[in-house]
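Example with several molecule types.
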Amino acid sequence: MSYLKRFLSFSASILILVVVWQAVVTFGQQPEFLMPSPGRVAIALWELFTDGWLFGHVWVSFVRFIIGYIAACALAMFLGVIFGWFSTLWRIVEPIVLLLKPISPIAWLPFIMLWFGIGDAPAIFTIAMASFFPMLLATVLAINSVSTSYMNVAANFGLTRFQILYKIVLPASFPKLVQGLHSALTAAWIFLVAGELMGTSEGLGFLINDARQNLRSDLIMAGIVLIGTIGYVFDRFLTLVEKYVSKKWGGG
Amino acid sequence: MYIQIENLTKVFYEANKKPFVVLSDINLTIKKSEFICIIGPSGCGKTALLNILGGFVPPTNGRVLIDGEEVKKPSSRYVSIFQDYKLLPWRTVRKNIELGLENKKLSRAQINEIVDAQIHAVGLSGFENYMPATISGGMKQRVSIARALAVEPDILFMDEPFGALDSVTKETMQLNLKQLLSSKPGGTTVIFITHDVDEAVFLADRILVMSAKPGKINNIIEVDLPQPTMKYTRSFNAVRDNVIKEMAAVSHK
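Resulting structure tokens for the full complex:
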């Protein structure tokens, strides 16, 4: 598809969203603060931008997110390679992981605040927990699903076990690791606001919570729009990376 | 005898635990630097036989001896080449050919020398830094052959290596393979699976015709044509007709 076509369909999509939103506001007859109009939200965004707050909130959230996400993914990949490689160990660890995985990071939030205090730590930890399990499971799966034909080639040429790991298994599972990074990112971004709702004085989550206390529904919606937009950009970026990797890795 | 296959049987178990006899009591001896082609209907256990010879799969019964030693696991002394090449897609042509040399005690210069010679021999000069995904099937199979020959194996196990190639490329590859094998001092023993009778007659010293259910060797045909072999001469056609007759007999059983 050409860039023009893609741009047109993207614009049409956004336009439909805004029109439906405006229709709900216009025909819904509800008070303005229950459902701010797109125009109002645009003005709120502009206000944030000219005040200089916008960049500050986004930057703080971004830094927290990146720290939590990268730290968790690095640890998850490291452990995932070990668990994936030593299958007996994984049989012991897997039930623990599956038990902890469905617990929302929010449930841990009170503990996290008791252990690490308020401020950046709860936000970073929430993000980290949300990224950790998807990435860990993706890594173990990636290591385990390396095609036996690669393993046979490795065995045929007399590679040692360690050589098989870093010359065959890691590169062969790379595309799946990138997929894991992508799904961990989408999973973790959802928890950004939750981690920032309490005990913070900056960030997109704070912006929304602060606006709630000041009954500024237009600012709440502005925060929501920002979170959606940034999440969308992240997602598109990793989709591109994923496509590039699978193209580069494909067709042996 | 160089390769000895003794009472080899392979049984697979289907999902309903029913045994399925893939190979039934195979006995065969192969001389050093002999070129053997295996031909037969699908399901006759050709690939299973090759996988057992290569040490990838254990037999249910019987054993395989290579140079007097029982085959228990794969070794770079006998390398397998497959129809789907099995190149490592994240490595360039050069790095793929290098794979088997990296854990040998060789200097960088020695490795480069061997790889350069192989790339030249299979006619891939200029494509050293291409990724597998960007080259044609014939070229991929050349890479796979060069990768195997780089470790100077005594035996090549080839499972329909040219089966996916167009007929012109196939012809070139057959000639090229003959040249490559004749240039090695001491010779290379080859066991080569194919569906193509002309290919088998052109390449082989002996052709094994296998039958299915259960898989066994039905007949062994000595080729013994004047060297260099030319396709479609009178003597070539005589052997070819013989093989076709045997195959027909097998498929009507």
